[in-house]
Amino acid sequence: MAENRPDRPGLLIVEDDAELATLLGTLIEAEGYRVDLAHDAQRGLHLGLGHPYRVMVIDRRLPDMDGGLTAQLQRIEHRLGGPLFHRRPDGVVPTDLGAHVLGRSREILDEFSDLLSTARVLSRSGLPPGAIGLGGWTTRGFR
């Protein structure tokens, strides 16, 4: 759905109902936004960490997040000791803490992807395409 148009403000929709997500995306794109869709929480987190969205629309009851992505974000904020985003009517803006966490997360994800690529090459047999877990996350969402 999303075009690679950095001149348009970006919006992320995380919704497991593909038909509803597509409808929302189409309506929002008609208003001039660039829209990315994720149909599960893991993909939504991957996109959210990897792109500077102006707005994120998140289904609070995604089946793969045990209580929703918002609850997970609140737990992360609690553990880090402060909010990651300023929540405003026109969207979210990272706090200083949020900008730091997002930046470091992108670096860690890139380094982990590089680690897997190098390991596959060096193993000669190539690691199987199955998922590798890291702290409850699997690489399946990062391919």
Termini separation comes to: 18 Å
Helix content: 40-55%
- Secondary-structure element string: EHEHEHEEHEE
- Helix and strand content put the structural class at alpha/beta
CATH class value: Alpha Beta
Indicate how many domains the architecture comprises.
Answer: 1
- CATH homologous superfamily caption: Response regulator
Second CATH tier, the architecture: 3-Layer(aba) Sandwich
* CATH topological fold name: Rossmann fold
Mean pLDDT: 76
Rg calc: 16 Å
Q: How can the largest sheet be summarized?
A: 3 strands, parallel
Key terms for this structure?
three-stranded parallel β-sheet; 143 residues; alpha/beta; Rossmann fold
Write the layout of secondary structure elements.
Elements: E1 10-14, H1 18-29, E2 34-38, H2 41-50, E3 55-58, H3 69-80, E4 85-88, E5 91-94, H4 96-122, E6 133-134, E7 137-138
Parallel strand pairs: 1-2, 1-3
Antiparallel strand pairs: 4-5, 6-7
Overview of the structural elements:
The protein has helices at 18-29, 41-50, 69-80, 96-122; strands at 10-14, 34-38, 55-58, 85-88, 91-94, 133-134, 137-138. With 143 residues, it is an alpha/beta fold. It has a single domain, classed as Response regulator (Rossmann fold, 3-Layer(aba) Sandwich), CATH 3.40.50. The strands form three sheets. Strands 2-1-3 form a three-stranded parallel β-sheet. Strands 4-5 form a two-stranded antiparallel sheet. β1, α1 and β2 form a beta-alpha-beta unit.
